[in-house]
Amino acid sequence: MQRTTITYLHLPPDADLPDLGSRPPFLAIVLAEDEVAEMWLWDVARWLVASGARYVQAWGKDAEAWLDAVDDAALEAVDYEDVPDENRVLSAAHDPADEDIEEVFWFAKHRAAHPVLPLDAVLIVHIAQAPRKEEIETAYADA
Q: Which domain range does residue 54 map to?
């Protein structure tokens, strides 16, 4: 399964969240290299869901907390009611002690799928003090 659009977005911890504009449903990969404030983590999860993320993979610091935040944001988005299939948000946490980033990228490229929506776009959200756009894009391309 090949994604047709890959977008890299660097966010320093606690940065303002940009408007992602109108975009089709997408797969988001959160690369959390730095710890962040809990409220900001939850704000990012809500922002991803509201922006159209329908599958979120979290890797790095506090991956399980990212998973919990995304799952709750998805439920919050539908007022904790039954979730229509097209609004369902899948999520996965990846512990860097168990999986390296290349494995996460490989899974995102070749196995991650939504049950009813095509996810042709990937947004890589890199949470770190400094960007590493070329390195991360190359690692994704090579996976």
A: 5-15+22-142
